[in-house]
Amino acid sequence: MTMTDNSAAQEAFDGFVQMWITGTTAGRRAPLLRRPDEVGLEYEDVTFPSMDGVPLEGWFIPADSDKLIIHNHFLPGNRYGYPGHLPEFGGLGGFEVNFLPEYKALHDAGYNILAYDIRNHGMSGQGNGGIVGIGLLEYRDVIGSLRYAKTRPNTKGMKKALLSVCLGADSTAVAWSKHPDEFDEIQAMVMLQPVSANYIVEEFVKAVGMEDGYANFDKAVHERTGFHLAEQSPLEHVKAVTVPTLVAQVHDDTMTRPQDVQDIYDAIPVAEKSLHWIEGTTRRFDGYNYFGVHPEVAVEWFDKYVG
Fold this sequence. Notes:
Helices cover 36% and strands 18% of the residues. By secondary structure, the protein is of the alpha/beta class.
């Protein structure tokens, strides 16, 4: 490897560490570029506290039904998606993730939607000094959303389900294992691309060709956050899940390995579960748009178990 190659690899390494720790790209949160009215949906701006008091910002999208889906997004996106088509945010995927078509399809299928920004993302408050715990801190926001849905006058009596994506999926699993009683009203869940940190980092350092990259990455993250990469996985936490769960994942995702999601799926201790592999792409971020293109996969699952 040449000096130029070493420099480029180090730059990529440093940038990825920074993104991992702060949950931002280029030192800045991803903006909310779109709102539900762009696809003809009425919505209400809402705020509610996380379990530990961090203020969370969200949307409530009403439907004429008694069913509610709570949406938990991925890192480094927000409730709208991710502006990967903008140069400043183009390093991940290089194209836009837009959840609005997904929300529209779920709404038209008869589901109210609560979508919010996890701490340190979108317009929600900063927590833990901006540190991202890959679920180990953000689980408190999932609890906050559940409590809000239980107490909001027009949602407290609704039948409830979860659509949890990547960071949101990991956060949901941690929340379930720490506070299972908070999930007593949840009837079903869809987990899109849950992930273990060690797989992501192993694939990254292999791609940039950095010697001792994993150990250096783990050291950097631990020194800045107090967490080791091996801790940042939903694998043990999903053993607390008690409802029918659909897991979906880009099978040939170059950012991780299919074995990670297979192991997570296998660890979910319910009979009513399904693993849906997304084929025809190697891009992880295509998975985040998947339910906007193929909403029937999620809708059929929710229709079967929510009610």
